[in-house]
Write a structure and sequence with these properties.
3-stranded mixed sheet; mainly alpha; 66% helix; Alpha-lytic protease prodomain-like; Alpha-Beta Plaits
């Protein structure tokens, strides 16, 4: 006997409306970022700046990531089907994974090339570098304003916001490098700026990559202690054992939990099994920091549990 919790019309309509708003913000930010890529690419060619080239490639990575984010925002709330039981909800996790991997790659490139430029500095046109850095910063600020209201909505929006934020800091670093070269003639400032951009990119990308990998590997949601969940479920009257207890995250705001629950045979004889299911559902939905509203529990007697060939703690 199992129990599933439905998320129906009102919640789905609200989620779809929110997704439409996120998609619109992402499209605007994507267009702005493509403009930044064109300006910074031209600027890197004109000035010979590694910092600006790194920022341009970073912006290109942002653009690719934002395109994926738009696609994810378009797909993630499509209706489920018998073949796609969760619809496309997990697309946002895949998009965030790809974005974080792209960010990590460009961060490592900037780190390696920056060290090389410290040893062998190139002449950089500082005035032009300052102008193109300012253009990039202005575009990044515009994108941040567009994305800011939805940045906490899901991993997809969070990844997009962090990419543009890191790029804005990169543009600021480009401008500082231009000013230093202008005032002191120290050409290595360009390489230092590239290294600082890498220092901003790599930790953020690594953290986001770790979070998305945790979800794809179906680790328990952060803040949900399954041993504590088990103990609390065992406190429900007539519950004798809990095994095959699993919890994971399908997408942002959608943690799920399942378990086999051994109850006293009297529950089946006297018809109180539905009440036990309701109590167990309330247990995981109300008593922990992570409220799990989608739960599936299989009630069984001790004899039925003993017949199972593959069980987990």
């Amino acid at each position: 006997m199992g129990f599933g919790h439905d998320h129906h019309h009102g919640g789905e309509q609200h989620a779809a409306a929110a997704a439409s708003g996120h998609r619109r913000r992402l499209v605007i930010a994507c267009c702005i970022t493509f403009g930044i890529v064109a300006a910074q690419g031209l600027g890197a060619w004109v000035t010979g700046s590694l910092a600006l080239l790194t920022d341009a490639v970073h912006s290109l990575t942002d653009s690719i990531g934002l395109v994926m984010a738009v696609v994810a925002a378009s797909l993630m709330f499509r209706a489920a089907s018998p073949r796609r039981t969760w619809g496309f909800r997990r697309v946002e996790i895949l998009a965030a994974l790809l974005q974080s991997a792209l960010l990590l790659g460009i961060g490592v490139y900037a780190l390696v090339e920056g060290i090389q430029r410290l040893r062998e500095p190139h002449d950089v046109l500082h005035v032009e570098l300052l102008i193109f850095g300012a253009v990039g910063l202005a575009g990044n600020i515009a994108s941040l304003v567009v994305l800011s209201s939805g940045r906490r909505a899901n991993f997809n929006m969070r990844a997009a916001f962090l990419e543009v934020l890191a790029d804005a800091l990169g543009s600021l670093g480009v401008m500082v490098a231009a000013v230093v070269i202008w005032s002191t003639g120290w050409q290595q400032a360009d390489a230092v700026a590239a290294l600082l951009i890498a220092a901003v990119i790599i930790p953020r990308a690594a953290l986001l990559l770790r979070e998305t990998v945790r979800i794809l590997l179906e680790f328990a949601p952060r803040g949900l202690d399954l041993e504590q969940v088990r103990r609390h479920m065992l406190e429900v009257e007539h519950v004798e054992e809990v095994h095959d207890l699993h919890a994971s995250t399908i997408a942002t705001g959608l943690p799920v939990i399942s378990a086999h629950v051994v109850v006293h045979e009297d529950c089946f004889r006297h018809g109180c099994a539905p009440q036990k299911l309701a109590e167990l559902r309330a247990c995981v939905a109300e008593h922990f920091d992570v409220a799990v509203e989608h739960s599936t529990f299989q009630l069984e007697t001790r004899d039925l549990a003993a017949e199972e060939t593959h069980t987990h703690a």
